[in-house]
Amino acid sequence: MLEKSATATERQIESRITIVVSFFEPLMILVMGVLVMLIVLAILLPIFDINQIIS
């Protein structure tokens, strides 16, 4: 009886974890995209500034 209860609870917890992870996946993709964009801008903006100073 306790084993059935433990199995049912385990299934519920696993399904809730799956739902929570599925909500966080797009959020994490957006956060990673923003971080990559900031790194690219940190590299490119000084290059553009030097280009404007030269010309």
Can you give me a brief rundown of this structure?
Helix content is 96%, strand content 0%. By secondary structure, the chain is mainly alpha-helical.
Structure, described:
By secondary structure, the chain is an all-alpha fold. It has a domain at 25-55. The chain has one helix at residues 2-54. The radius of gyration is 24 Å and the shape is rod-shaped. The model has no long low-confidence stretch (mean pLDDT 93).
Secondary structure layout:
Elements: H1 2-54
Radius of gyration: 24 Å
Strand content: under 5%
Structural class: mainly alpha
Task: Say what oligomer this is.
Answer: single chain
Overall geometry: rod-shaped
List unreliable stretches of 5+ residues: none
The overall strand count is 0
Taking the sheet with the most strands, its summary is: none
What would the keywords be for this entry?
single chain, 55 residues, mainly alpha, 1 helix, rod-shaped
